[in-house]
Amino acid sequence: MNLMGLFIANPLAFIVAVFALSFSIGFVAIIAGTGGGVLFTSFLLGFTSIHPDIVRATSLLAAIAGTRIGAQNYLRSIANIRLALLLATPYTLFAVCGSYFGLYLTKHFGNIGIGALKLALGLIIICIGIMYIFVKRSEYPAARSDAITEKLGLEIPYYERSLNSIIEYKLRRAPLALLLCCVVGFISGTFGLGAGWAIVPTINLVMLAPLKVATTTSAVVISIGDTAAVFPYMMSGSIIPIFAIPSVSGLMSRARVGSSVAVKIKAKYVRNILTFLLLFAGIKLLLVGAWMLRI
Fold first, then answer.
1. Are 112 and 204 a contacting pair, CB within 8 Å?
2. Nearest alpha carbon to residue 1 among 10, 65, 14
3. In angstroms, rounded to a whole number, what is the distance separating the alpha carbons of residues 91 and 101?
4. What is the pLDDT of residues 229-268, one digit of tens each?
5. Which terminus of the chain has a lower count of CB atoms within 10 Å, N or C?
6. Number of domains the chain contains
7. 39: CB partners within 8 A, 6+ apart
8. Is the whole-model pTM more than 0.90?
9. The domain containing residue 249 runs over which residues?
10. DSSP code of 264?
């Protein structure tokens, strides 16, 4: 997909093409119940010649906007702010480190650095695709607090409108969740993936929080962490308005349309499509990265 050639020939057509591509990616992602950053980054890096720094910076911008818009109705009533601030600390620190590391690779190692990024990203995207096949999220997992999590006082009950009752829940494995946030933050900053694909399962499946708590709390963590992580890209000049504006607008516009369609389509079918696209893009990134490294 020669977007750069289209940009040189017809800037207006380039803007329309980027918006349409971003809208399509975001549309599939929101129905499948995930963020658009993973699909956006993998496809743009795998199938276009746009510089990785520009793609990653734009993807982080979209992740920031998407989490704030998507969960704004539930942040005050459901999100666990104590838990969010706890997890956001390591996530933010390592996301910023990841951003600087990614910029260092592309700046000092040229095509070899870009090839290494694409090769590593391909492996990560394939792992994420496999994760979508086997990992099943739980609406209300049962748990008992462990000693560390109980001392931190992280449990905050919330009102569940669909059940017309107060949901009280227990959390556990806070140290493991903090460690995972370090890893996810570094990956997010380095590759511009956002982190909903990992933070939600960490809170829901590792700490055993209800799914709605995991989703909305993840939005707070990502908003804080990715806002910091995008700063190094901004300072390096990687945010290009003619690309960033239609990309973020397309990814965000899908929210309203996708939400209305989601109730009519079985999400599992779309998740199967998403999984196929992730595996397809991951394999493409592996091939491109291996070719650039001459493996």
1. no
2. 14
3. 15
4. 999 999 999 999 989 999 888 877 765 565 555 555 555 6
5. C
6. 1
7. 25, 28, 29, 274, 277, 278, 281
8. no
9. 3-293
10. T
